[in-house]
Write a structure and sequence with these properties.
alpha/beta, seven-stranded mixed beta sheet, Rossmann fold
């Protein structure tokens, strides 16, 4: 995993892209060595568009936040407080820049290897997990989310069908009440309630 995230050796080439999501315009700084550096990832878009915004409240944790898209977009349209965590320091630096760029103040970004530096419980955990980090890391994120959720907490995940969505749904249902709430071009959005 170290090599995958060890991107400080890559030459920095910050660029900016604009995108529209949920009828609002956003701008994001990206760079070499971060996930989906040229455009908004389709899985992330599908995830954001599938979440029931009316129920999103309290504290939300985004695991593997990258350069901050989920937190920034959802914090602009809900009154929830967002924390985004990642092991990629370059992505976290960009996320903080993007929060300023999009005038977002109810968001905090910090470094954490999965839940290592997470010390509180959340009403929601949201993740577009880093598939390339391997199944062990992905399963650590999704299966252990339950220890960081409040009593009626909800976990949202997006994963591609060919990356094991069906087996993940089966495995998740051992710990959560699990439902596929959206399917879009091979992406599954999974909603998991604590039993």
């Amino acid at each position: 995993m170290g090599q995958y995230f060890d991107n400080d050796k890559l030459k920095s080439e910050i660029n900016l892209f604009k995108t529209k999501i949920l009828d609002r315009e956003y701008s994001f700084y990206t760079d070499n060595g971060v996930f989906s550096k040229n455009k908004l990832d389709f899985g992330t878009r599908t995830l954001i568009e599938s979440i029931n915004l009316d129920e999103l409240h309290g504290k939300v944790l985004d695991v593997g936040c990258g350069y901050g898209v989920i937190d920034i977009v959802l914090s602009k349209i809900t009154d929830a407080f967002f924390e985004g965590i990642d092991v990629n320091l370059r992505a976290l630096h960009l996320a903080k820049m993007n929060a300023k760029l999009n005038n977002t103040d109810n968001v905090k970004f910090y470094e954490s290897n999965v839940y290592e530096n997470v010390n509180s419980k959340y009403n929601f955990i949201i993740t577009n997990p880093p598939i390339r980090a391997g199944k062990k890391i992905v399963y650590d994120i999704v299966m252990n989310a339950r220890f960081h959720l409040e009593e009626n907490g909800i976990l949202y995940i997006v994963i591609r069908k060919e990356q094991g969505a069906k087996s993940m749904v089966r495995d998740l249902s051992k710990y959560y009440k699990t439902e596929v709430i959206a399917k879009n071009k091979g992406f599954f959005v999974i909603k998991c309630n604590l039993h």
